[in-house]
Model the fold of this input.
Amino acid sequence: MTAAHVPGTVRTRAHVSGLVQGVGFRPFVWREATSRGLSGWVSNDPAGVVLEVEGTADSVSSLLAALRRPPAMARVDEVRSESRTPTGEPGFAVRSSSMGGARLTMVPADTATCADCFRELHDPSDRRFGYPFLNCTSCGPRFTIVDSVPYDRSRTTMAGFPLCTDCRREYEDPADRRFHAEPVCCPVCGPSLQLLDRSGTPAPGAPLAGAVTVLREGGVVAVKGLGGYHLAVDARQEDAVATLRRRKHREDRPFAVMVVDVAAARDLCEIGPQELALLTSPARPIVVMERRAGGGGAVAPSVAPGSPALGLMLPYTPLHVLLLEAFEGPLVLTSGNASDEPIAFQDADALTRLPGIADAVLLHDRAIRTRVDDSVCKVAHGRVVPIRRSRGYVPGPIVLPYDSPQPVLACGSALKNTFCLTRGRHAFVSHHVGDLDDYSTLRSYLDGIAHLKALLDVEPTVVVHDLHPDYPSTRYALDLPDVELVGVQHHHAHIASCLADNAMAGPVIGVAFDGVGLGTDGTAWGGEFLIANLAGFVRAAHLSEVAMPGGDAAARQPWRMAAAHLDAAYEAAPPELAVVARHGRRWEQVLTVARAGVNAPLTSSAGRLFDAVSSMLGIRDVVTYEGQAAIELEHAADPTETGSYRVPVSDEPLARVQVSSLIRGVAEDLLRGTPVPVIAGRFHNALAGIVLEVCRQLRELHGLSTVALSGGVFQNGLLLRRCLDGLEADGFAVLTHRQVPANDGGISLGQAAVATALLRER
Ligand SMILES: [Zn+2]
Ligand SMILES: [Zn+2]
Done:
């Protein structure tokens, strides 16, 4: 009698879709099936994974339930099952792909060293003891090494490392945790480390120990990591950090620090449960946290000058684990470039550019296919605040509220740029590309688009761009042949991004506060209240406009915005403030030109309002990086301050928030000698008060009680907390970003979501 005739035997075929290839899903199914005594098989197919299982009804349904709890890197979107006639076939087989030319469904993101690999790394009896490139089906490089699809070793940068006998045995054994781990390797067959001195000559001795010696002596070491080169120095040595800052031409922007483990992180920062979860997550982002009182002294002042916060990350590759353990202290680990250039990731390029900055280069012979920067996030008011979404998350999909009828390419913005491709219900936001005005960044943008299109096997027929005609991303879109173009207003894209980030379609009251983006009326918007859904928006209210003297120059020189705002608030008779005296005749000259309307576009920007107040308070007149004046204003604010400034909202039809009264409030406090932290606190409270008041009015008018907060200004933790406190206490549901940043890094997702909504309405 065969199993087919055993009463109660059932056979089920199941299709599993989601991120289920290249993540150890088939061996997972093999283990789950064999442990339940089920027979059958599992295989990849173009839609994901397909399997058939046969056995008792209870075991089969228990296996189907287990498919919903997949291994670490996998993600199951859907399991569809249908019953089949039992065949009595014995055993359980892992079949090789029956792909028939179809592409891999999704490429996994790079994932931090798993606990099993971490244990092997430290086990002297293991053949991979101390090996800086060990990995398995649950961890290791993925997106950064994939050259093309279908995803297998021959199409990754591991192609040049043929498997040794031992590694092949593991690779082919479904019971082994390295079954079909494409980057699997060992000291016999895999990549190896090398240390070069300043002249590019291999240094004698063990590379890792040599690098540690240079670091201990206060030197700068370029370290080839997962998605690019980092520059490392001892975070405790002020001279070393200052040297790195000088060589990188990076005047003030805070450096991130890598620490060996959670205990070392707790020495430096206050770590809450959510921050701990992020810090130790498989994506291992940089988490920006409050420094611990008395603990900040453990890093040199130049690491994050004047900042009460510190960005920390844990080692995410075996190489980083070994380096941090050997060094026995915190390391500054910052992207390997001079500021404003993209991170170096190709050896030849790195060895040309980095010797001027680094005293030694620790590198290896596994090539990086796609440069990927570290991801950055923080936590505010119990919510995750993404700041940069890149390594560890990309190219994971974001699930849209509904299917995209055609594949869409969204080209993004200009600064902190990403692009986005859609395929069905999934939006694939690219890695952080950066500021497109740099030529090499633009090249990497073009390569990135071509690469992701090939990996996802999509050819977009609809291309979305910002309304600004001079953004390189817009020019790229307008140049593409044979596609349908859709222009999306910048702040609508911000709100749509926040909606898509929450898998919602609206309508909502959207509050978009950022630097500037081109409005539909040709002025520079940036302090906007929109009634919006994914398909469209109405500009319902905004901050009152002032001139932006010198255009782009105003973004680099916040004092120009102080001049413009004080001029608007007081006309010809500004109060005698230090900021006016500091700038002498230039103040009058700038205003004369602005009043004549020369190179002084009008803006309602909230970001530029922060700039103005930062300069008025003497915090920052000139910035060395985008957002610096606003960030320092946030840090200066006394979070316990409860005072505010009264700000009227003008009448219909388009409500204007009169920020001149806010500026007068700040100026009068300054003249009264009110301490800067108090004024900065009141300014934040006043802006949150504006948000609440305008949202209340719009709720009355439109019957909407959901608010979406987006735009780079909402990365300000204090402002975000104040807004959430006020809005939630008043009964609003508040959407904030969860996966992509509120800044322009999230614009491409919003653009894609808008185009998808428009296509559906046809
Ligand atoms: Zn592993
Ligand atoms: Zn091997």
The chain has a mean pLDDT of 92. The CA atoms of residues 421 and 572 lie 51 Å apart. Residues 114, 116-117, 135-136, 138-139 surround zinc ion (ligand 1) (CB under 6 Å).
